[in-house]
Amino acid sequence: MARKIKNRSQAATKTAKPNKSEATKPASNGKKAKLSALDAAARVLSEAKKAMTCGELIEAMAAKGYWKSPDGKTPEATLYSGILRELQTKKDQARFRKTERGKFALA
Length: 107
Hints:
Helices cover 44% and strands 10% of the residues. The protein has 107 residues and is mostly helical. The protein has a domain at 33-106. The chain has a three-stranded antiparallel beta sheet. β2 (96-100) and β3 (103-106) form a beta hairpin. The longest helix has 16 residues, at 75-90.
């Protein structure tokens, strides 16, 4: 006799999520692994040592070759929401801090 499933979460199969450490390892073919937009923004802020807007961050990330928007229409808004999400979820452990309206610096 088949066992009854109590809820849908038991029926769903879990997929393995990659570790964060795996995502930052260099690619196996010898090329550098691509940075995420948030990682690239943190790198730009550490080099600039000043608060920047998301538009300034996007321009600097593209100019330095750290990250380029893959045909996104509003990369500034996407970066802004990503930084805010990190601030909300990681609280004191977040890499960023908001200095004034629309400007971020490293924590």
